[in-house]
């Protein structure tokens, strides 16, 4: 019975990752259309792009406090519908303030969603006793493919944002709510006298000094990822001379390759170890940025984004998993804090690439994330082998929190 509950919990969490992949792809691949609909200038666009990760970071910090009293699955159950409705709000508005409010709600709720999803993923991986984290992120990539494909269809048939978003929300919102019934957390929890949740083996403090290498890697990875998600469409259209329809394809290509890489990534981690997998991914991603920077046409640019997807896809899931191994008695706290640097990467990456593109060239701007991704090699040892018995003598957690 316990194993069946874990399997159901794993499947329901994978569904949540999939839904979020669809949602995020629908937002970022239609940035040019959102800009046109609301008359957002090129100078103001980076402000909007920066506001979302700032608010998402706030949402992640708040989630760290909230999960001290309620389980991460409760946060996830209610954050995901809010994210979907906020996406619908982006498509339904007509005034600048309306899209600002919708994006604000999207940012706050997506921070809570990302933190709680990864808390649960690390918890389930610990319960399984083997690497499964990349599989959850593979589901996210699959959702990204579906979302980017829907965005391509919207651009191809010149559909309004609302018409593009509404069918996805109508299908995914009830699916997410139904799937949330089977959420499972793989670690035992208890409640103290004040009604607060504590993980088994809690009392372990999260040392920011120990966590910092993973925080930097997370930022570097998301600077690279945000470059693809926020600028790939404009890069192909404005620099490489593609059509608007074709400009939606790089993100789709990127998500296809991240799906492929993550689908086999857990096997790679089990066979070669996380350190080797992260090092290989860093080198491949940096090479991809180099190809994008020197591309002579749209299809060479596609090759670069393909390499980027295969390289970057392994880094973020393994960073969350490494934080869980590093602080097995305080993994929720470690992951919530680490997740903030997800948004630091987006906050730095999007304006940085835009500013360099305007002041210098977008080709030259691609060299910055290339160098930062390569810097991951310096911190690869932080992904070291799993501690014996899940951390410094702690006994492997029991899988009883399945209510």
What would you say this structure looks like, in words?
The chain is mainly alpha-helical and 403 residues long. 75% of the residues lie in helices and 1% in strands. The protein contains 16 helices and two strands. The protein has a two-stranded antiparallel ribbon. It starts with a helix and ends in a 29-residue tail after the last helix.
Distance between the termini: 13 Å
Strand arrangement, largest sheet? 1-2
Question: What is the succession of H and E elements?
Answer: HHHHHHHEEHHHHHHHHH
Helix content: over 70%
Q: Quickly count the helices.
A: 16
Strand content: under 5%
pLDDT < 50 runs, ≥5 residues: 188-203, 387-403
Note the overall shape.
Answer: globular
> What integer value in Å does the Rg equal?
20 Å
Estimated structural class? mainly alpha
Global mean pLDDT: 87
**How is the biggest beta sheet arranged?**
2 strands, antiparallel
Number of strands: 2
